Amino acid sequence: MTAGGTRVSSEVDHVTELLHTRAELARARAVLTGTVGVVMTMGALHEGHETLLRAARERADHVIVTIFVNPLQFGPNEDFDRYPRTLEADLEVCRRAGADLVFAPSVADMYPGGEPAVRVNPGPLGEDLEGLSRPGFFHGVLTVVLKLLQLTRADLTFFGEKDYQQVTLVRRMCRDLDIPVEVVGVPTVREPDGLALSSRNRYLSGAERQVALSLSRALRAGAEAAEAGRDAAAVLTAAHVAFGAGQSGARLDYLVLTDPDLEPGPVRGPARLLVAAWVGGTRLIDNAPLRLDPSS
Ligand SMILES: Nc1ncnc2c1ncn2[C@@H]1O[C@H](COP(=O)(O)OP(=O)(O)OP(=O)(O)O)[C@@H](O)[C@H]1O
Ligand SMILES: CC(C)(CO)[C@@H](O)C(=O)[O-]
Ligand code: BAL
């Protein structure tokens, strides 16, 4: 036991400590010297999260994992109550990946004054794509990310490209608000058949799991069309056809081809293809980089 936390594992030279309160975190953080990397999660950890943890382990002297299902980013009809909470299994993943501190606060500890009246405004990009379907989502995400950056005083923070709009907005927030942290994007980890790993994949039945492949299939078809030198319109058409609208069983929310920084305007050269769709009652997202021939 150290600094008021709980020792959850001990190897010859490594201890992962579980902290539940901001006071425990402050005490444990105060004795860390060198660089600190933070990986923020909502738990239900999988190989995608583990890849972020390993990237953090490689780059930073100390690794902090946060596990917090943030009510602020869930809409009234979303899955906050049923979101999977698997702390014991999550701690095992953190231990295996060599995390030093795991911060798993309660809602009351994160928001001691109740719902915060002051929140980060994500700007116009926060209202587009995910923000269109999930109003207030990025206000909630950026607010908790900023709070966790303050509480951990991280030098580096690691975000998965699976949530591409999220990592883009976190970068923009850190730039626009002069937050002294390096934001590291980590490529999406996939199942062998292409499905992007996601905690919400747990909601899928066997049949829905097959239907969910329409997202990565659409991205692959778009990327192949781009590689073949097709123009933006043809790339999007190829992606739509491969998604199988009306036949796949998935309900498309959006399928868009944009600039890699998600800036509005014409797309040339490097680009990003992003997709969101409902599979039964589960909303999934995915995206992929591609390169359009500037002369196409
Ligand atoms: N397949 C993946 N590859 C790389 N990073 C990932 C992957 N899945 C999640 N992450 C990253 O892990 C971090 C924590 O995400 P989160 O805990 O919401 O997991 P999730 O799988 O995205 O969950 P959900 O299914 O609820 O969206 C985020 O930075 C997210 O982008
Ligand atoms: C960044 C995050 C942990 C904020 O709650 C969440 O949006 C997530 O898990 O991607
Ligand atoms: N994976 C990003 C967090 C969310 O969808 O709520």
Model description:
The protein is of the alpha/beta class and 296 residues long. The protein has helices at 22-30, 47-59, 87-96, 107-110, 130-133, 137-152, 164-176, 206-211, 213-227, 232-243, and strands spanning 6-10, 15-19, 36-41, 62-67, 101-103, 156-160, 182-186, 250-258, 269-279, 282-292. A hairpin with a 4-residue loop joins strand 1 and strand 2. The protein is globular. Beta-alanine is lined by residues 73, 163, 166. It catalyses: (R)-pantoate + beta-alanine + ATP = (R)-pantothenate + AMP + diphosphate + H(+). Keywords: ATP-binding, Cytoplasm, Ligase, Nucleotide-binding, Pantothenate biosynthesis. It is found in: Cytoplasm. Its EC number is 6.3.2.1.
Broad structural category: alpha/beta
> What is the fourth-level CATH superfamily of the largest domain?
HUPs
Rg from C-alpha positions?
20 Å
Described by the principal axes of the CA atoms, the overall outline is globular
Uncertain ranges: none
Beta-strand fraction estimate: 15-25%
SSE succession: EEHEHEHEHHHEHEHHHEEE
CATH class of the largest domain: Alpha Beta
Bound molecule kinds, no repeats:
adenosine-5'-triphosphate, pantoate, beta-alanine
- How many domains? The number is 2
CATH second-level architecture of the largest domain = 3-Layer(aba) Sandwich
Overall strand count: 10
> Any idea of the CATH topology of the largest domain?
Rossmann fold
Largest β sheet strand count, sense and barrel closure: 7 strands, mixed
Distance linking N and C termini: 62 Å
The order of strands across the largest sheet is 1-2-5-4-3-6-7
The average pLDDT is 95
Number of helices, counting only DSSP H or I runs of 4 residues or more: 10
Proportion of helical residues: 25-40%
